Amino acid sequence: MNGLLAVADLSGDPRRRSHDRRMQQLLGGSAFMTIIISTLILFVLARGSIDFFRSIGWDFGVLRDSSKAPGWFPRRERFDLVTIVMGSVLMGSIAMLVAVPLGLGTAVYLSEFAPTRVRKILKPIVEVLAGIPSVIVGYFALKFIAPNIVDPIFSPNQSRNMVVAGLAIGVLVIPIMASISEDALRAVPSSLREASYGIGARKSTTTIRIVLPAAVSGIVAAFIIATSRAIGETMVAAMAGGRDGSGPRVLDPFKPGLTMTAAMTNAAGGTDQVNSGAPFQVLFFVGFLLFMMTMGLNVIGDRFVQRVRQQY
Amino acid sequence: MSESDSPQESVALGVGEDVSTSLAQEQQVRSDSTDLPIFAVRDLSVKYGEFRAVRDVTLDISEHEITAFIGPSGCGKTTVLRCLNRMNDFIDSAKVEGRIDYHGVDLYHEDVNPNEVRRRIGMVFQKPNPFPKSIFDNVAYGPRLTGGMSKVDLNDLVEQSLRRAALWDEVKDRLKASALGLSGGQQQRLCIARCIAVQPDVILMDEPCSALDPIATARIEDLMQEIKKDYTIIIVTHNMQQAARVSDRTAFFTTEMNTESDRRTGVLVEYDTTNKMFSVPSDERTEAYVTGRFG
Amino acid sequence: MAIVTDSQRSATRTQVRHAITQQKRHFPSIALSVSLLIAVTFTLLTLFSLLARIVTQAIPAFSERGVSFLSGTIGSEPDQVGIWPGLFGSFAIGIGVLLIAVPLGLGAAIYLEEYAAQNRLNRFVVINIRNLAGVPAVIYGVLGLIIFVGWLKPVTNGGTVVAAALTLAILVLPVVIITGMEAIRAVPMGLRDAGYGVGASRWEVTRDHVVPYAMPGILTGTVLALARALGEAAPLIMIGAITGLLPETSLSGKFTAIPMLIYSWSGRPDSSGGNIGWSNAAAGAGLVLLALVLVFNIIGIFLRNHFEAKRVGT
Fold first, then answer.
1. Which helix (H) or strand (E) holds C181?
2. A217: pLDDT strictly greater than 60
3. What is the value of ipTM here, to two decimals?
4. How many Å apart are CA A8 and CA A14, to the nearest integer?
5. If you compute the radius of gyration of chain A from its CA atoms, what whole number of angstroms results?
């Protein structure tokens, strides 16, 4: 009973076929949307930056204030970039001083030392910390870190200063540091640990000499990605950092300071609000710089994460 | 051989009207009988990227027979099998050269819809892979896709498919239970029932018993003999005794060193009736393999 | 073979027992354990004091004001304000995020895992999504300000809750896509094979098998995205959420959201008089926000368990 078929017999139900094609186009369209979003971000920032430079007559001198009291004073058309970049770097560094020991320590404890039962409780707690909105951490900085920790110990002139904001940003990025490092530590094959125990090494020796070096790419990735997050953090810096554009040039972290992110919120809706002209348009240029900085860090960090994946 | 048998009984599945009419229509097509084989494979080569997995396979497969593909690991037998219902489409790097005619139609013709091909050429996989649904929904899934079937007909179809797969008596009281609660052998028979329910013409089996114990394996082998009068079956197996027991014809594949890429490429060595392959093979590589001296 | 006396044998035994049972004080080991414990304790202490601070500060707002703290409107007296406009704004934003980011993100995740060929363009799309996930929230605010407040003014009516929802939906889109892709990648290949084996089309296999199987992971991602959207304030500042007076809430007028209230109120000085200061009002709003985020997490866990039970097919 052999028989011949025609191609048409195998072409299937045209309705199901075209439905399938339509769905593919729809789904592909949503994936392509993400490219459009990136393009729009770049376009908006670049166009705004050009508007800004046009407003200041392409006079790049204003970006480097060499007067006696340099600073970021948009309404007086003084845009000293060093002030806000230093503000971001300073607060970011303080944050990382908090986040690296606490985050990495928590990660090492969770992955190497904690009994399963403790781990099961501790891990969700770290995840809860990761989900706390940054305004709430900002509140915590203003109402707890400043009055109860920084003021009594260091008695700064103003309770809103870069140390307070930096510490709070540190609290915010602890979970990022902890979870990425922990993933890296857990990716280290247990055969490596067993080999070390097999020749009589202690747990501490194994952790420090074997596990940490094996996980170093992932820990570096955690550091870079957490740094990027710290520099991009807006609310805590705006609420607790003092928002003072004349500060950080002096390099005294107990003074109020201004980050790039806080400068952007000032320009859009805060104390510097004008909505047109150079004092407003500068937010696009700052945004562009911030975008480039964080993207650079993220790309490098991502590369380290991929390296961990390839290794094991 | 049974090639000259009269067209298969339209009541093969004994189900409701809709189903028998669609079977009757199918027979219209089939009744323009010629002596064409059901599959005519010509110079089939498959590449994965730069790597040539199998090359220059030419063979004809006859209807209502069980054809076994045997050979050592990496010889391309599964690759060839997956070409027969275009399951290789899902591997991005796979490139199929040569020609496969199914009832005289080039399977890789651009107007051919691979989903329709897979409806007619069903497949049972190495690991039993029931859907995480009820037993009933597993079997009914395929028929529901095309729609237009009454509830009564669907119930009949599910029952008949499960009966054909020798599973009905074991599951008839728990059709609504999860298919994942069945044993491995039962799951594999459920997969066969699910395949039968879409009323295919050919059933491809990719090492269907490799994950099963000997008793479950024996049941599947019996089942294959049962259903071969209605379906053409092609089975890939690692187990030579299984090939000898169940198949009418056997194709032996092996690997050959590829001079350009320094990697092994699969080739078809010999293809003949199973009797001849296991008693007087004409190629010494076949003989070495079936007598267990190599492989 | 040497002759070993009983006394010799017992001496060796004592030595060995001594060697393997003695706990030597090893300074680096102790130092490491202690510093790890300090790190963990500090992390926990931070979380605990944060929660304690919010709760204790929030108590006056709730005990003195009761329901009127939830239903009242914002204003200039700390013991008079309520968070209703913020609740309204946050609720609308949550709905908008669900309606926009979830279908779009899920669609993209399905496309990238199930349909897209392994080519350069698609690899670029994935890398781009990972980068978008790391873009600071304030930059999404700039995007929202220009696109949704500016260009799409006819649709959004300017800096409204609609513009806010669109902005935050774009912000959480990468989170939805990445978690969705992970969930879909975890679906066993055999399930797809089984679907294709009976002639299902790609879309049918996706709809009937892949998405249901991946549902727990997709839901977890959705909940995470929602929680993130509800907590963001920086983009809202950029698109002009207000903090002063808001007599009425609507989809087409000015808006605010709970994180904006916390931001604004916690910056105001507490006057010595009155039982409820701005910091109490801010903590009250903060407690509501934390509770919302927590509730979403619990809903997420509940749904995940529900779908996991379904996956087993009971």
1. helix C161-185
2. yes
3. 0.89
4. 11
5. 26
